[in-house]
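Query structure, 259 tokens:
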């Protein structure tokens, strides 16, 4: 989103995205493991603060994964996103909302070392009647992607980490074009859909990242339930593509708090 937190205000978001499909090929019932949330979850925790009306900073931590190096030694990393956003245009005065985001992701390994990625985004949004439509450009110098667990056999495997054993080596960066639309169903309830099309660098090859769901908004909280085609939730892993181009069968939710 192009929206900033607001001067002197704090923001927190807690997200859970399943790493399993709702229905496996064996026909397991979706509620057997509580929509996949009992069996491996990507958990994101984000905190933000508004320095001025149009400038904020955020910190997000997302659990990563295990990998093996050339000597078959086991390692793991988590993703830490350090981001800042500046709102350049306000649609109340200049017809559209336009913001510029920049920052970095640290792949924090267990020995307190890791790789760094540079991140950037240009986001453009416009409200029309009950709709809000957005697009822009997303970039990271080191993207990552982890498959939905039940598709690892015969599907796209995880993108290789720079120190990870395996070949061929993928391109490090990813550039993508996002598209988003939300519709106000009532004063507090919204329906939304999001797509991110990789256009350069690494991609899964299975179409865009996609999500659709419902969001309830109050003055102090926002609650979202959604279905998507990727289990990833870090900045540099959400726009590398989906595990399937025609599926939205991964369940997730998030809770946002404004204070």
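Result returned for the query:
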């Amino acid at each position: 989103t192009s929206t900033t937190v607001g001067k002197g205000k704090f923001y927190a978001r807690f997200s859970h995205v399943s790493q399993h499909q709702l229905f496996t090929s064996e026909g397991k019932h979706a509620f057997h493991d509580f929509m996949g949330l009992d069996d491996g979850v990507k958990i994101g925790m984000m905190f933000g603060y508004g320095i001025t009306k149009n400038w904020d900073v955020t910190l997000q931590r997302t659990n990563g994964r295990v990998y093996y190096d050339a000597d078959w030694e086991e390692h793991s990393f988590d993703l830490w996103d350090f981001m800042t956003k500046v709102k350049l245009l306000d649609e109340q005065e200049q017809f559209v909302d336009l913001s510029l985001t920049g920052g970095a992701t640290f792949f924090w390994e267990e020995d307190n070392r890791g790789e760094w990625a540079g991140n950037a985004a240009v986001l453009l949004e416009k409200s029309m009647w009950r709709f809000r439509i957005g697009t822009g450009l997303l970039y990271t110098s080191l993207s990552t992607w982890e498959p939905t667990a039940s598709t690892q056999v015969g599907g796209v495997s995880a993108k290789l980490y720079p120190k990870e054993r395996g070949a061929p080596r993928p391109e490090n960066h990813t550039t993508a074009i996002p598209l988003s639309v939300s519709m106000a169903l009532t004063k507090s309830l919204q329906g939304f859909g999001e797509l991110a099309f990789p256009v350069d660098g690494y991609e899964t090859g299975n179409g865009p990242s996609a999500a659709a769901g419902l969001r309830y908004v109050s003055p102090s909280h926002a609650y979202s339930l959604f279905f998507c085609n990727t289990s990833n939730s870090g900045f540099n892993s959400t726009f590398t593509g989906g595990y399937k181009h025609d599926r939205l069968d991964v369940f997730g939710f998030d809770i946002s708090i404004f204070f």
